[in-house]
Amino acid sequence: MDKTASQTYGRQFKFTAFCGLLSSIFLAIIKLTLGTIGHSYTVVADGIESLSDTVVDLTLLLGVQFWSAPPDSNHPYGHRRIETIITAFVGLFLMAAAFVIVYRAIDGIVEGKRTESVEGIAVIAPIIAILLKEFIYRWTISVSRKIKSSALYANAWHHRSDAITSVVALIAVFIAQINPRFYIVDNIGGIICSILIVRVAFGIIKPAMSELSDSGASEKTRKMIEEIALSQPDIKSVHKIRTRKMGSVIFADFHMLVDGNTTVRKGHAVAETLQNTLKSSIPELIDIVVHIEPNE
Fold first, then answer.
1. Same structural domain for residues 157 and 239?
2. Rounded to an integer, what distance in angstroms lies between the CA atom of residue 172 and that of residue 8?
3. Is there a contact between 122 and 39 (Cβ–Cβ < 8 Å)?
4. 8-state DSSP, 180
5. d(CA 59, CA 129)
6. For the chain, how far is it from start to end, CA to CA, in angstroms?
7. Which residues contact 40 (CB under 8 A, 6 or more apart)?
8. Torsion angle of alpha carbons 56, 57, 63, 65, nearest 10°?
9. C-alpha–C-alpha distance, residues 288 and 278, integer Å
10. Range of the domain at 80
11. What's the CATH number where 267 sits?
């Protein structure tokens, strides 16, 4: 990733994450205020969860300052692993939030806690949250795919999980207004919501942990590298293709066979042409090491 691309990535990431932070702060204030005025425990609890979302957004904004930094003598491959670590953190945070919701729901069923005297004004908060968070989710997921950021992708699903919990809060407020004895529907809905969130969290954590254990790029990417290399007229074959994922970028190295009579200068030119072709065809590839061998 060249300097211009890195700067563009940083700007888009920071702006998107900052807007997510503002939305979380805004919704936390709305939910806590209207939930308190409307005597809705569910909406207040949802507001506390939105307030905790700001921790994730702040972590992303601080983290991008580190992982977007250029390579140095101590980190010759750059700092992209930090993005992967934060991605895993977001997934774990989601899972922890889901377990808290489950605990609260089961505790409500066991203790027989009820939402009573809920006023209609409490309905406004979850409606605003659903609309705003779904918009933020769709926008964030779009940007994450554009700049290929796993951390931003994870945060997009974090926004959607907030929208899901707000749906549960909305249903709970409506039912509580109809008849407080139906409180158990809120608890069951919270458990179902948590199961969905855990599923999303697992989908975020699994690839992040795989990357932290130094897994390579996909088979499709490795196949593309081989096909592009073999399409070059001076290359006889390639083997020992190895790749390494670092956040949204890929490092690769492989052995390339050329005619045994090829000069060092010519071999270097062939390798350089191939590297440029690969980088233009697979933008995620930012570093390619080619070992030249004679085709005997």
1. no
2. 43
3. yes
4. G
5. 22
6. 36
7. 34, 115, 118, 119, 122, 169, 172, 173, 176
8. -170
9. 9
10. 3-212
11. 3.30.70.1350
Distances (CA, A) of 242 to 49, 158, 254, 262: 43, 33, 6, 25
Q: In this structure, are 276 and 173 located in the same domain?
A: no
270: burial class by Cβ within 10 Å (0-12, 13-18, 19+)?
buried
Cα 109 to Cα 42, 167, 180, 185, distances in angstroms: 14, 20, 13, 10
Amino acid 228: pLDDT: 92
Verify that 129 and 175 share a domain, yes or no.
yes
Structural domain count, the chain? 2
CB burial of 80-117 (b: ≥16 within 10 Å; e: otherwise) equals bbbbbbbbbbbbebbbebbebbbebbeebeeeebebee
Identify whether residues 154 and 285 lie together within a single domain: no
Q: Number of helices and strands (H, E) in the chain? A: 8, 3
Contacts from 3-10 at CB under 8 Å and sequence distance 24+? Answer: 6/68, 6/70, 8/147, 9/68, 9/147, 9/149, 9/248, 10/64, 10/68
CA distance linking residue 194 with residue 173, whole number of Å: 18
On whether both 21 and 146 belong to a single domain, the answer is: yes
Please, what are the averages of pLDDT over each run of 10 residues along the chain (296 residues)?
63 88 90 81 72 76 77 81 82 81 76 60 88 93 86 85 83 75 68 76 84 85 91 89 84 90 89 91 88 85
Question: Amino acid identity, residue 157?
Answer: W
